[in-house]
Design goal:
Blueprint lengths: L5 E5 L4 H16 L3 E6 L4 H5 L4 E4 L18 H22 L7 E5 L3 H10 L3 E5 L8 H10 L6 H16 L6 H6 L4 E3 L17 E3 L21 E6 L8 H11 L5 E6 L16 E4 L4 H5 L4 E4 L3 H9 L4 E3 L6 H10 L3 E3 L7 H12 L2 H15 L3 H11 L3 H4 L1
Helix pairs in contact: 1-14, 3-4, 3-6, 8-12
Length: about 400
């Protein structure tokens, strides 16, 4: 019997990092644990809806309303903000938890302060990964080539020196690379089917629990038009949506396609006026209840983020993957290799190519078979309940008695 514990979760203000953890947090609260969740204020309400107590802190990272350009264009542009944010956030979090230290720390992969705090407090830490994890050989095959040039620059060397100094100040002698990328324990909130080189992942460290989606009823519902023979959803997620030219190609691809209906999520950075005339079989929104729609459509045109990719797999929906950044290119390749998607890079995603891919995917029985196969595999991974079981298993022995 596990007695109620204080479990502290730490994340950043980004939908793709917060959303995957929410059902797990809700389940831990339902099991009687007291859960606090350190998060910038923009996500406090979403966190509170799970029953956890938000612990707000001020972040210097670009927020959910900022466009992708706020993250810069180079590798160092991408990583330096996380370190700077961690350094300034740590004192806030030390103060916020003074006298109320948790029994266990859960953390998103982007939350460096959480790992430092767990070390300071002497409590277990578990990574909740919303996307792929490192496999045996990852450093040699991916990280080292990617960092080879930046590490030769004064800026790159200064980044590593600052990171190492900050870790040492907090009693951690580990090099920044394994500190950030090699957790002692990790629960992976994606299906194993989405993991590259899954056969080389150390499953003593990483456990794949698959989709932890919940019913999402609070996000609203959507009704499929009665007369639609085929329905497609186009969504590039929440961060990389400023693509009016791509959306215009989607309108051209599906706007006059007999029997088809198109749902287009254009994001908050695109004015519908930029899209020109909207065909009668198209509905355009700044945001949609994605999972509710995916349960009813025939095709998903996605940026192949980890969340969208697994939602497409969980609902057995054929996909056209149009990756925009970071892990999405790898996810797109995995989806294509599974036989459930076609990858089109943005510059290739013309109306003709989109239409050709759509018609091929939705009428292919082999695609449908592969989707059902992956969907069945995901159902065996355990989802939210298994994630909560694994977290409780890591609680200190005196709490588990």
């Amino acid at each position: 019997m596990t007695t109620p514990a204080h479990i502290a979760m730490f994340s950043i203000a980004a939908h793709g990092h917060v959303n995957p953890s929410l059902e797990v947090i809700r389940e831990l609260v339902a099991r009687g644990h007291r859960v606090t969740y350190a998060i910038p204020p923009a996500f406090a309400e979403k966190v509170a809806a799970t029953g956890a107590r938000p612990v707000p802190y001020t972040s210097t990272l670009p927020g959910p309303d900022d466009g992708p350009e706020a993250w810069g264009t180079t590798l160092l542009d991408n990583v330096e903000p996380f370190l700077a944010d961690a350094i300034q956030a740590l004192p806030q979090l030390i103060e916020a938890y003074a006298g109320d230290e948790p029994d266990l720390v859960l953390h998103d992969i982007a939350s460096y302060p959480a790992r430092v705090l767990a070390h300071r407090w002497g409590v277990p830490a578990i990574s909740l990964s919303p996307n792929l994890v490192a496999w045996e050989g990852y450093e040699e095959e991916v990280a080292e080539p990617m960092w080879a040039e930046p590490k030769k620059t004064a800026r790159g060397q200064a980044y590593y020196a600052r990171f190492e100094a900050w870790l040492r100040e907090n009693g951690i002698t580990q090099h920044p690379d394994p500190f950030a990328g090699r957790p002692a324990r990790s629960i992976v909130l994606i299906p194993k089917a989405l993991q590259p080189h899954a056969d080389r992942v150390d499953e003593r460290v990483h456990t794949f629990v698959g989709a932890c989606q919940g019913d999402r009823a609070d996000q609203g519902d959507w009704q499929r038009p009665a007369g639609a023979e085929k329905v497609a959803l186009v969504s590039l997620g929440s961060a990389f949506t400023k693509q009016p030219a791509f959306y215009r190609e989607c309108l051209r691809a599906f706007g006059d396609l007999p029997g088809w209906h198109l749902v287009l999520q254009a994001g908050r950075h695109v004015d519908p006026a930029e899209l020109g005339e909207i065909p009668g079989n198209v509905e355009v929104h700044s945001w949609v209840p994605q999972l509710a729609i995916l349960r009813q459509v025939d095709l998903f045109v996605t940026h192949a983020g980890a969340g969208g990719s697994q939602e497409g797999l969980a609902t057995a929906t054929p996909m056209i993957a149009v990756p925009q950044a970071v892990d999405q290119f790898g996810n797109a390749d995995v989806l294509q290799s599974l036989g459930v998607a076609r990858r089109l890079d943005t510059e290739e995603a013309t109306a003709d190519r989109l239409r050709e891919a759509a018609l091929a995917l939705v009428d292919d029985p082999e695609v449908a078979r592969r989707l059902k196969e992956v969907q069945a595999q995901m159902a065996q991974e355990g989802g939210t309940g298994r994630a909560a079981d694994l977290i409780e298993a890591q609680l200190p022995e005196e709490v588990r008695k």
